[in-house]
Amino acid sequence: MGKSDKAERAKERREKRLQEISLLRTIPYSDHQRWWSAETVAVVTGGNRGIGFEISRQLAAQGVTVILTSRDHSVGLEAAKVFQEGGLNVFFHQLDVLDTLSINEFCDWLKQNYGGLDILINNAAVNFNQGSDNSVEYASQVITTNYYGIKNMIQAMIPLMKHSAPGGRIVNVSSRLGRINGKRNKLEDANLREKLSNIDTLTEEMIDQTVSTFLQQVQEGTWESGGWPKTFTDYSVSKLAVNTYTRLMARIFSERPEGEKIYINCYCPGWVKTAMTGYAGNISAEDGADTAVWLALLPDQAVTGKFFAERREISF
Ligand SMILES: NC(=O)c1ccc[n+]([C@@H]2O[C@H](COP(=O)([O-])OP(=O)(O)OC[C@H]3O[C@@H](n4cnc5c(N)ncnc54)[C@H](OP(=O)(O)O)[C@@H]3O)[C@@H](O)[C@H]2O)c1
């Protein structure tokens, strides 16, 4: 089969799956499946536009109370207003995932006004490359926002996660570009791949060390021969860290007692028409948001530490 035939087949498969999913989205959850109510609180980072905006809309449309956060006050307020005018329970609070003061203020506000949260959607991220670019000019900002931003939020939100039988839910918006063992774009160092894949021995220090080695090589100008993913290198390293951290946190959370469980998963939204891709993606933000909402509301709460795309588990 030629390259263009393969691409054509892949496109057909993707379109078929997206059609199936839009159909699935029209099927209402039964009362039995609905573990949530208007008292259920979901926090979405980077909710002012793109996939985060859509995730906020879809979660609120299911009856969850959504706290739409944005680092820019007026833009976030405006976004929440759009939803409120449509009758949805969406409320705004400023949040910059890299600003400790902003995170602390948000935590105080959330605790005081809502008593905590049930669902955290870590959506905020940056990418500075498009098409065939592969600049690492902003590598530090990319790694800091996409990886450390998620870590900041998870660590800040853990004490605020409400205790409940269905468990707290965390969804990390990630990318297939960050697969450790994907066919393309993987780390060349098999030992490092093995180390990051071994969930029993994985530590936070190993992940931090991997991203800091990358950033050090960027600073020294040696990253190109460092065996890092070849496409959107800084972004791919950041998402590889997110995926690995998701698995690590699932292991750590599994030790929490019944009634205090937190389930954490990550997913790839696909190539989505948003500002991040210069609107060049092949799917809408609505479709890109779907798996996040599906995962956050899963009636079967035992799913944790997995990676998904189009409502199906995929490999790390
Ligand atoms: N689009 C795709 O094809 C694609 C593919 C795979 C994965 N993803 C992932 O999907 C998620 C959403 O991306 P998108 O496509 O919707 O991109 P987007 O339109 O660029 O939205 C990114 C959001 O993140 C926010 N953000 C950036 N830095 C932040 C910070 N320090 N604190 C708080 N918010 C911050 C942005 O806020 P501002 O408006 O203030 O900049 C914006 O709301 C990201 O995790 C991305 O990596 C996207």
From TrEMBL:
GO terms for cellular component: membrane. Gene3D superfamilies: NAD(P)-binding Rossmann-like Domain. It comes from the Eukaryota. The keyword S-adenosyl-L-methionine does not apply. InterPro entries: CBR1-like, NAD(P)-bd_dom_sf, SDR_fam. The keyword NADP applies. Keywords: NADP, Oxidoreductase. Its EC number is 1.1.1.-. GO terms for molecular function: oxidoreductase activity, acting on the CH-OH group of donors, NAD or NADP as acceptor. Pfam families: adh_short. PANTHER family: (+)-NEOMENTHOL DEHYDROGENASE, SHORT-CHAIN DEHYDROGENASE_REDUCTASE. Belongs to the short-chain dehydrogenases/reductases (SDR) family. This is Short-chain dehydrogenase/reductase. The gene is LOC110769636.
